[in-house]
Amino acid sequence: MKLRNLCERGLMALALIAVLNSCQKESESYLKVVPEDAFMTMSFNCASLSQKGDLANDLMLKGAESMLLLQLKPEAQSLAQELLANPAKSGIDFTKPAVVSVFGDNIVEGKAEVAIVFAVDDKEAVKSTFETFGGEYLEFNNVGDVTTVSIPTEGMSAAYDGTSLLLLVSQNHVALDFMNLPESRQAVACDPNFQPSVAGSADIACYMSYEKLFSVLPKDQLAQSGVSDEMMQLYKEVSFCSTTNFENGKIVTDYKIYNGEKLKELFKKFNREATGKHFDYVPEKAMAVLSFGVQNIAELIKLYPANVQEVFDNFFQQYGSKTSDLNYIEGDITLAFSGISNNYFPQFLVAIDGNTDSIKAKFDNYKQQTDALFAGGLLEKVSENFCVFNIPETDHFRIYGGDCDNTFYLMDESMFNQLVKENKVEKLSNSFNANPLAAPIKKGGVAIDFKPIVPMVETLMVGNPYQTIATNVLSKFDNIVISVDMENYSSSMVLQMTDKEKNSLRQLIELGEGLAAGM
User: Fold this and answer.
1) Cβ pair 151, 138 in contact under 8 A
2) Which tens digit of pLDDT belongs to each residue from 116-131?
3) Buried/exposed 213-225: b ≥16 CB within 10 Å, e otherwise
4) Is-contact 166 178, C-beta < 8 A?
5) Directed axis angle between helix 467-474 and helix 504-518, to 10°?
């Protein structure tokens, strides 16, 4: 009896695996028309986006639909109204993402090929839809189980079968060329990360292959933009995926890097996890804070083309130093912006960890330059470790700089008065650590708080005709936080809306419609 039960459970498990596998293959089948050399692919979950954006009840969209219907013939009007009520009657399965891929060898010349793919649920309904909306202009041909559609627009063609509808924009191919690709040329068969990235449940997804992108770009142009052969080798087999989901009161975008083990090793070599140690010196109500960790900066520069390295070398040589001195900078780097002072100067703090003793020793090489600044009254010593730089023609705007406990600081006068006491940088009693936005970015990231930005913009734009528009737009957003997970080579961006109840996509649509109505 036990053996029988065990066998029955085993058979049920195998059956379940078979069903799940067949479902997975079915969900992948409509993507078979996407070629493996596509370097960028985006997908849109139409059903989810429509529901979250409440498009069925959007008055402005209904008005546009009515105007469009008036341009159609009676039979086309009838079908269009049916499709607006029930898109599935088109024969397209909108529960599966619409996928847009870019590929081709002539993208620099503006001749990239674009494939737009939909999942087909009813082949005959697709044909009926085409015939109703443009039958007199379209020519249909059957090639095996594929129906081709000749579109009277140069560079455009369409084809469909029982699983896929492909709309192609190309000067070199027609849609039929991709309808029966062998598995060796299918992105979904060649790249295990392709299908999970573009055909998942995300509202919007983007998948990019750096290796394929670099392969279609001229090497000389890549070199001019700072991409060396060594860097291209590092990006070999690297893929990037981002997914965006519109939730109630917020937009969540996640980023992840696949493959590229050498790149990941170097990522850890040149980057280090931040600690948030400088948050003690940032005001609690700071508007924007950027925090990250660095190391081996000079070694990183060696990965860039020779002409880029030469720029760095020449810059440091003219001040009696070397590019390798950048390696003295190691640890946390924090940039914070707290607002605008009464005289409209920014209130800011820059804190850079490093071996300040070694850095200060290098300043002997700058003595001639610094003496000239002192003599000209542009640089003044305010304590043993801190100086102030007077910016000419700015009504005595002063930037303070100095070091304390192996950290170099730059700050405006108001921050200097708050932080520096008896040549020491003192922690603030109300620091950014108490701000809820601090925790997500302590290990690295960016936080921007829109609440204090709105009144600042309102003040700065007094008398500007766009003041009301700018403040109205900004007031829709609460904050944005980008956090980094170095361990998993991923990051996340969360944009919080002021209205926490309504879906964020609906809010964006209403914001866009409001702006359009006011223009």
Assistant:
1) yes
2) 999 999 999 999 888 8
3) bbebeeeeebbee
4) yes
5) 170
